[in-house]
Amino acid sequence: MVFKLARFHFSGCALVAASYSDSPVLRRIHQAALRLFAETGATHVSISELAQAAGVARGTIYNNLTAPEALFEVIASELGDEMHQRVLASFGADEQPAQRLANGVRFFIRRTHDEPDWGRFLCRFAFSSESMRTTLNSPLAQEILSGSEAGCFHLQPQQLLSAMALIAGTVLSSMLLVREGLRTWRDAGADCAELLLRALGVPADEARRLALSELPPLLPATA
Amino acid sequence: MVFKLARFHFSGCALVAASYSDSPVLRRIHQAALRLFAETGATHVSISELAQAAGVARGTIYNNLTAPEALFEVIASELGDEMHQRVLASFGADEQPAQRLANGVRFFIRRTHDEPDWGRFLCRFAFSSESMRTTLNSPLAQEILSGSEAGCFHLQPQQLLSAMALIAGTVLSSMLLVREGLRTWRDAGADCAELLLRALGVPADEARRLALSELPPLLPATA
DNA sequence: CATATTTTGGACATTGGTGTTCAATATTGT
DNA sequence: ACAATATTGAACACCAATGTCCAAAATATG
Q: Is residue B221 part of a domain?
């Protein structure tokens, strides 16, 4: 039994759960769409292209997607949500705020190397897609706040938003470096983490140490 | 006499000079296009929309633009180039690297407040438009290098690209904060500059002082 | 003022994508 | 094996945008 996407729409908001459906067809369509959006842009993907890229007939798209024009938003919030869950699941239970932040940003940068389409999508739309921004920003704010309270970061309260901008922007730009082959994920990730920690007031030597520590694998989202 | 855009195309590259034409019609078309691109996206602007927004007839668009599909690229590189020139023109002759950087990023953030369409365009496309990235990045690299050599910044040589990513990404995100009304240009600019300088190894108190200094006006490009 | 140049705005054929329908075929579950 | 369900691929009408053309009106230019 395939979940019809339409059943999960209400008041203009599509539930992310729709994509966790077990239908292999929907999965393939979403994967193909992610790639096409990343390559071609959010608006230049025609249904025929999508069908061909997913390896299905054009009619199948309409069978599974009641609102193809909403596909981009669905995929965008899905992506942010999935990554957030996996990053949380990958943190060690006793990691300090600075280490969590360093690992978090490096997860994003390493994944750009491991899954180029994923990274390209994020680089292209993280700034313009409202839903992706909010999905990615709220957990980030939590991390910064807990780090500030723990005394790891030295920020004034009103600098919270600017610190979020600092981190989000730097991570995205660093992902771009990796995507374009200008730096390895390891170097870009380490330098990104080091510079960010320094900006947040972590002493330079400590920042460097944390940024160079062994990066654990990115675990799957806990079902 | 209006410059036909086509005369300035060769080997796929449109000279920026075309836009400095004295034709008021072309100027209006470009202004309208900047706004529409920023609002609607680079691909969703139809010729009819553009004509209406510019206050001219549809035929006039075809009269002045031999290659409407190249309009986006023309405007993107034009924008980057113009801003670069104006920022350079606005630096004091004897300013130190750290002060130049602080002022440079604040110029971008203040202009986002002064010219919302300009800021929106930049936020939306700075990451995806190749030509804009290169236009904005090469002067940035110069600043960082001269600051490192002068001993103001503490970076390892291989961190140059990551430092550029840090700055470009943070400035763009901070512009977004201003564009969305979450912070004033003054606060977002100051915090952006302060955090960046700290990341580059400038002592915290010095970073704060430079970030809060009086910001001179953004001068017009020297003809 | 007379002449050259632009702009105007509507008509036109064309293209490319949309969303629907449907009978034939394939797949899946029991 | 049988029934329920999904996929296929083609046909169809439809729409929005494209680029071209052109005569009338408006605007520069000398």
A: no
Residues forming beta bridges with residue B13, ordered by sequence position = B10
Structural tokens at position A19: 């994509």
The predicted-structure confidence for A41-72, as pLDDT tens digits, reads as follows: 988 899 999 999 999 999 999 999 988 889 99
Interchain pair A187, B163: CB under 8 A: no
Between the CA of A17 and the C1' of C21, what is the distance in angstroms? 30
Whether B60 maps to a domain, the answer reads yes
- The tokens describing A201, both together, are 């007031």
* B173·A165 Cβ contact <8 A: yes
What is d(CA A200, CA A147) in angstroms, rounded to the nearest whole number?
Answer: 10
User: Is residue A65 located within the same domain as residue A95?
Assistant: no
Query: Which residue is listed with tokens 């901070």?
Result: B174
Q: Is residue B44 part of a domain?
A: yes
CATH number of the domain to which A84 belongs: 1.10.357.10
Q: Which amino acid is at A19?
A: S
Do A59 and A133 lie in one domain? The reply is no
Q: Closest approach of chain A CAs to the CA of B133, in angstroms?
A: 11
Q: What is the DSSP string of A110-154?
A: HHHHH-HHHHHHHHHHTTT-HHHHHHHHHHHHHHHHHHHHTTSS-
pLDDT digits (tens, 9 = 90+) for B9-54: 222 233 333 344 568 889 999 999 999 999 999 988 999 999 999 9
Q: Do A172 and B127 touch (CB under 8 A)?
A: yes
Residue A59 CA and nucleotide C20 C1' are separated, in Å, by 10
CA of A7 to C1' of C29 (A): 23
- Chain D nucleotides reached by a protein CB under 7 Å: 6-10, 16-22, 29
pLDDT tens string A157-215:
999 999 999 999 999 999 999 999 999 999 999 999 999 999 999 999 999 999 999 99
Could you give the CA distance from residue B161 to residue A181 in angstroms, rounded to a whole number? 12
Tell me how many domains chain A contains.
2
CATH label of the domain that carries residue A66: 1.10.10
Structural domain for B51, as ranges:
24-72
Q: Which residue pairs from B54-61 have beta carbons closer than 8 angstroms and sit at least 24 positions apart in sequence?
A: B54/B25, B54/B28, B54/B29, B55/B28, B56/B25, B56/B28, B56/B29, B60/B25, B61/B29
Query: Is A73 in CB contact (< 8 Å) with chain B?
Result: no
The residues that bridge with A10 in the sheet, in sequence order, are A13
Using CA coordinates, name the residue in chain A closest to B188: A162
CA-based nearest residue to B188, from B109, B134, B85: B109
Q: Specify the pTM.
A: 0.89
